[in-house]
């Protein structure tokens, strides 16, 4: 197996006397999609927030390609290749779909809003933006304000923004939340495409077992903020302990 691209080592966060994530140690590898599951309140999103930097750890480490990111801000972690999508879409609603993607491409190029550049730079950036637009099948929506997109297309646009940042590690927090049955497969297909790139590491928080079965190379189970189980999806889902605390026989796990 390849060397891990991302490691959490005894990662912990306390809120007063409550330990929301307790000494979670995991390694994530390129070419692997890991799904993080657990009951409500298990610490899944909090664990994600610790990795991406939205929360600061009380103790433990987040290490990316040998670099300790633990005390870095989210923007610095993004610079080191951590890409994060949230349960709620995070877009520029008044801007068009293409302009949203172009801003992400400019940010990746370190240009931000700076306009005093040769026009050829913007031509290259526009071409890259159009590439990600087509890759996520949003070409027909290019000039539509992001706020007017159906929810499913907003989620696709968020995937496009992540792709435009060209991270090494993709983090998706319930990417199909609130989506119709018609739109969810389109987003999952985009994630499956990212997974096929063996240089990328994908982490997914999800509670829908059909999504877990379709995408997971590995499953991590959190319970009360602690790592309960991890490993091959079939083996983890067959574990009686996992059934008892989370999956349950009603989920039809076999």
TrEMBL record:
The keyword Nucleotide-binding applies. One of its GO terms (cellular component) is plasma membrane. SUPFAM superfamilies: P-loop containing nucleoside triphosphate hydrolases (SSF52540). The keyword Transport applies. One of its GO terms (molecular function) is ATP hydrolysis activity. Pfam families: ABC_tran (PF00005), BCA_ABC_TP_C (PF12399). Keywords: ATP-binding, Nucleotide-binding, Transport. It comes from the Bacteria. Residues 6-249 form the ABC transporter domain. This is ABC transporter ATP-binding protein.
